[in-house]
Design brief:
2 copies of one chain form a homodimer. The first copy, chain A, is built from 15 helices and 17 strands. With 430 residues, chain A is an alpha/beta fold. Chain A folds into 3 domains: 183 residues, 3-Layer(aba) Sandwich (Molybdenum Cofactor Biosythetic Enzyme, Chain A); 78 residues, Alpha-Beta Plaits (2-Layer Sandwich); 157 residues, CinA-like (Maf protein). In chain A, the strands form 4 sheets. In chain A, strands 2-1-3-8-7-6 form a 6-stranded mixed beta sheet, with helices on both faces. Chain A has a 5-stranded mixed beta sheet with strand order 14-13-15-16-17, sandwiched between helices. In chain A, a hairpin with a 2-residue loop joins strand 16 and strand 17. The longest helix of chain A is centred in the middle third of the chain and has 23 residues. The radius of gyration of chain A is 27 Å and the shape is globular. Strand 14 of chain A pairs antiparallel with strand 14 of chain B, so a sheet runs across the interface.
């Protein structure tokens, strides 16, 4: 069962929107055993959408479209599909009422063009939208491959707004497609596992693991890299889930042996999530005094639901004054070593404990750029200190020499700092 | 001059990476007058990459590929292009030396497979990579459309890592393509302007502006929406830049009249950037005491270079204790109104001034979810207070009823809070 994803919207082709739907849908489809072979993005143009649908129908079994379901004149997805599949648009009375009711609830006037969203290609199943007024459809499209053969292709549409698409996928489409696959009996079991590594580059990882492992077809092993981390995904297919897991084991063990120094997680858990779990498990609180990261550490740890279990107070002491007045850093240390120094990082972490009363007190000071660097302390020079129990550990963060943007320096510093805290907790059995 | 973008990488098709390169390249190409008509994503599969190149060559003049230039066995982009364009891979001695030198500098051992990155299709121009070891190429591919007609297509490759691709595009490819276009004399002048609106939904914006304006071809007007904001982009083409600007004016004025209550910016300036400029212009400092946003406001304002001009100290007072002990919020107010209340927001902003000594003191308290909501105060209930000069203004943030995630509630609260501060400063002529 091959899926193809078509994103519709000129805004994507002129680069004003990053398409996050492609990744979301591909991952969700993959998880229910549907492989996506192509992503295509096309503008709000009748002819080119038709061409893309035609090509997709010739090589795929399921076509998933996002975008072009809004009320404005360039939203033409259902109109084009109606044309392509010869399924004329019909006004859906129920949908019209739903649109009316939604606007009544928000006490806003109903823009007349919103009723366009009640025009649905004939014979479609409607995918309700729990969030907005744009509904999607599931439409079976049949065409003659030859005189004797008819091919059926499912066309599924979603709005382009990610939270609407996601809500609709989860509430309606996921189960629908899983049932459809079972009916077609095309899927055995597919299982897939991710092993995450830190403090190693992608090419070194590839060499350690070796070409032979990456060349395998079942299980297949694919390498990935993101800012500061890399990982592999092992995927295996078999008649049952248990068999698929068993099939995966030898390769998994080989990778674990070769990469033992770098493994930090299995699955999708992130460094902040692992640290949060560790803190909760041991009823520890944590506090940050940030300079160069300006709130990023605090944000990262409060992005997670339930952050109040370990977060009481965090400080962004951006100026020297704040470091002196709030954290009690010595003026003399600032003069002698500079604000970006291991000494100041230590004093920040010590001072933080007095005001936060947290169990773990973490400080960071550095040069995020693009300005402020010097020969001695170039952009990317960052010191951290961790004050935990009677220990005060400090270090300069190091990373591969790379041209990093301000945002990347800050992101990477945040990741590495949280990982250092996690390592310290893991090694000291809190 | 039509461009087509092909992203190569199975990781994109299984949804483990969000492709940000598509938006970046499309916007950059657009800015130099090259329209992108299609984005295609294809896996690390020889045959399907060939098919995608063939289709792209038939309908586009420039093919830009990203991904598949790494050292691992699934990185096959140059190999496939060599096949497709009949340009055999040759080892480039200079490139081999560069790879050696880069690894020497980082004092890491050179993984043997990295030398694969020195294998370059014949007759290619090399695009140096100032960041990593994967170089890109520019290759002219010629094919017979008919017995008498030969078509030339430029194939350009980049690594998939965004910072590498961006550095290579800016250092080499941008000027190369701009020169190429001038040679071909296919471009007059294209100018484009963006008008940004806040506190209005996309469909209401579309209705106010009207179908007639959106139906125009030159200038063309396209509507966009992101979380909490929407905007239009007006694009016009003419022989010269001045003429293109002139052509745009009548439509621009009509939009300005219809949308005057909602305009907050022209161009790409964001709310944090506008606020930062206002603060710098008036030598004002700002401080935040955050609860539900947990550092997001502080992060947003320190994402910008030069943030030290207005940032001295920010606090994340997540717990009630921190609100009482650090900000001096009354225990009684917490008991009577709850931590999420207008009263507590006010006390936070008043207390913050004493510790921050900043000119503007902003507080936020609310329920970001997914837990912690109640009938009275559902998820998304957020109060802010702004303490500026003798004024203390406070309000509950309001937004359309929507199913928002924790991350979205926090992002939107951050945007709206900063916008309220900007509005207050604009109205009080600081």
């Amino acid at each position: 069962m091959k899926a193809e994803y078509i994103a519709i919207g000129t805004e994507l082709l002129i680069g004003h929107v990053v398409n996050t739907n492609a990744a979301y849908l591909s991952e969700e489809l993959n998880a229910i055993g549907i492989s996506t072979y192509y992503h295509v993005t096309v503008g709000d143009n009748h002819e080119r959408i038709i061409d893309s649908l035609k090509l997709a129908a010739s090589r795929s079994d399921i076509i998933i479209c996002t975008g072009g379901l809004g009320p404005t004149s360039d939203d033409i997805t259902h109109e084009v599909i109606a044309d392509f599949a010869e399924a004329p648009l019909l006004e859906n009375a129920q949908q019209k009422e739903i649109i009316k009711a939604k606007f009544l609830k928000t006490k806003r006037a109903i823009p007349e063009n919103n009723f366009k969203q009640a025009m649905i290609p004939e014979n479609s199943i409607i995918i309700p939208n729990p969030v907005g007024t744009a509904v999607g459809i599931i439409l079976d499209y049949h065409y003659k491959v030859s005189e004797t053969e008819i091919k059926s292709v499912k066309i599924i549409t979603f709005p382009g707004v990610p939270c609407e698409m996601e809500a609709m996928f989860q509430a309606t489409v996921k189960d629908y497609l899983a049932d459809y696959l079972r009916e077609q009996e095309t899927v055995g079991a597919i299982v897939s596992e991710k092993i995450k590594f830190i403090n190693i580059g992608e090419s070194r990882m590839a060499e350690l693991i070796g070409d032979e492992i990456f060349a395998g077809a079942n299980p297949s092993v694919a390498p990935y890299a993101t800012l500061g981390e890399c990982y592999v995904r092992i995927t295996s297919k078999a008649a049952s889930e248990a068999e698929a897991y068993e099939l995966m084991q030898p390769v998994k063990q080989q990778i674990e042996e070769k990469m033992q120094d770098y493994i930090y997680a299995y699955g999708d858990l992130t460094v902040p999530e692992l640290l949060a779990a560790k803190l909760k498990e041991n009823s520890l609180s944590i506090a940050f005094a940030e300079s160069c990261t300006g709130g990023l550490l605090s944000k990262a740890m409060t992005d997670l639901p339930g952050a109040s279990a370990y977060t009481k107070l965090n400080l962004v002491t951006y100026s020297n004054e704040a470091k002196v007045e709030i954290l009690g850093v010595e003026e003399q240390s600032l003069d002698e070593f500079g604000a970006v120094s291991e000494e100041v990082a230590k004093e920040m972490a010590l001072g933080l404990e007095k005001i936060s009363k947290a169990d773990i007190n973490v400080s960071i000071t550095g040069i995020a750029g693009p300005d402020g660097g010097s020969e001695d302390k170039p952009v990317g020079t960052i010191f951290i200190a961790i004050n935990y129990r009677e220990q005060l550990v400090s270090q300069q963060l190091d990373w591969y020499a790379r041209t990093l943007s301000r945002a990347q320096v800050r992101e990477l510093a945040c990741l590495k700092t949280l990982y250092e805290v996690l390592k310290l907790l893991n090694s000291s059995n809190p």
